[in-house]
Amino acid sequence: MSIKGLLAVAALALATPAVSQETTAITGGRVLTGTSVIENGTVVIRGGRIVSVGTGAAPAGARVIDATGRVVAPGFVAVDSGLGGSEVSSVRGSDDLSNASNTLSAAFDVSWGLDPWSMTLPVARLGGVTRAIVVPNHPGSSGGHAHEQEDMAGAGDGGYHTPGLFAGQASIIHLGPDTRNGGTEIVVQSRVAMVAPFGEAGANVAGGARGAEFVLFRETMAEVRLYARNRSAYDRAGLRDLSLSRADLEALVPVAEGRMPLIVTVHRASDILQVLRLAREEGIKVILDGAEEGWLVADQIAAANVPVLLNPITNLPGNFERRAARMQNAAALETAGVLIAIKGNEGSVHRARETRYNAGNAVSHGLSYPAAIAAITVNPARIFGMEGRFGGLVAGAEADVVVWSGDPLEPLSQPVAIFIQGREQPLTSRPLLLRDRYRDGGEGAMPPAYSR
Q1: Spatial separation of the C-alpha atoms in residues 262 and 83, rounded to whole Å
Q2: Which DSSP state fits 94?
Q3: In 3-state terms, what secondary structure has residue 237?
Q4: Helices and strands in the chain: count of H runs, count of E runs
């Protein structure tokens, strides 16, 4: 197929109709709001938002989608994701999730490199994913795309150690770019959280020991606070030399002041406790990412009111940090009162659609069904300060709604209708288009010489 033909296929896979002001009512389905269940419910959408959720009849003149015998749910939220930032992780030029600069680390903002035409978005969308928290990569990234230390921001040959404590800033995206009508913006909000590795990965960045990492982190916070109090002196070179660039210092001010959460990749129970202590003493907000041994210290995590992003199917002691990993981790944390969000596999890029499978596996290992639905819908929104905007089916929220053929945690169930911000999405993707091309032997299925 020619370049022109490939571009046409890409446009078709991602094209969506414009936001309509018409009223759409999804009626008769089992409605999972994210916090409750409504049998024979009605969800009304207009102008990109949810107008009402209840059991009433469809408004007069509304377009009606009959969901009888089906399940209506909020769009799922992929956390700890690389959607839109990585096409093929092994092809460096197509991966914008990691940064190797010695002078720019905390200030690295992934939102500038996100691609609304990425072929990964429609694939994830067909798994019910409508939003994602896109995070920069670092050596301890838990999604399966870990990079070697020399690829870590600020930790290149001859570089400083301290900048490497931070991988950069995360962004929230939606998966419904209206590319056919000129709408290409997928970023909902940039710079929603800072990202840093702790445990073994963080120790390697800091010089090889966990103790060094914590000391360097505290010294960094002290420098950031010094800078924040003395910006004018810094501008006239009247402040002592600092180890970070101005851009990184500015990026870390909200972290040091407790306004921006720090996503901390950590696995071992003892490391989790040290991170909780650090957060308490430094007055910073943290989100634990990974926490495979979190069940051992679940009560302490809950007492600290710290949320956890986790993969509930991680159960192998792949190293000494995960000796106690078990598939009951999600259930134990939720029982203790920890706010959890369930993520997909391998960086939540090509396998982001498996988020719902992981939630289903968590249910099979003790997590309640309502808690599993919340962990992939309303909980991520709460964790990142977006409750009421997306993640749940409530009046006033942006209309991210998926109609499923059956239980969304059942692998055989499929979406029969997907709305993102009120725009109905095509139920197709590049893999499906390629399947149809070769299966049906359509135009361009084979080079011309093959037909001779």
Answers
A1: 20
A2: G
A3: coil
A4: 13, 16
Task: Spell out the alpha helix ranges (H) of 79-136.
Answer: 120-125
- The residue assigned the tokens 């446009």 is 11
Could you give phi then psi for residue 232, rounded to 5 degrees?
-65, -40
Kindly give, in sequence order, each residue whose CB lies less than 8 Å from that of residue 112, ignoring residues fewer than 6 positions away. Answer: none
Question: Cβ atoms within 10 A of the Cβ of 68, count?
Answer: 9
Contacts of 55 (CB under 8 A, 6+ apart): 38, 39, 40, 41, 42
pLDDT in the model for residue 45: 98
Q: What is the pLDDT of residue 204?
A: 87
Report the DSSP pairing between strands 37-46 and 262-266: unpaired
Count Cβ atoms below 10 Å from residue 400 Cβ, excluding itself. 30
Please tell me whether the overall predicted TM-score, pTM, comes out greater than 0.70 for this model.
Answer: yes
Residue 141 structure tokens: 């990234």
List the beta bridge partners of residue 32.
37
Q: Domain ranges in the chain?
A: 76-387
Domain 76-387 has CATH 3.20.20.140: yes
Give the model's pLDDT for residue 440. 72
Extract the residue ranges of the chain whose pLDDT is less than 70: 1-20, 139-163, 179-183, 442-445, 447-452
On whether the CB atoms of residues 401 and 43 are closer than 8 A, the answer is yes
Question: What integer pLDDT is reported at residue 451 of this predicted model?
Answer: 58
DSSP state of 49: E
Would you state the pLDDT for residue 7?
Answer: 40
Distance (Å) of CA 236 to CA 201, 215, 239, 242? 37, 29, 8, 14
Two tokens, residue 93: 């030029």
Spatial contact of 284 and 75, defined as CB atoms under 8 Å apart: no
Looking at this protein, which amino acid is placed at residue 232? S
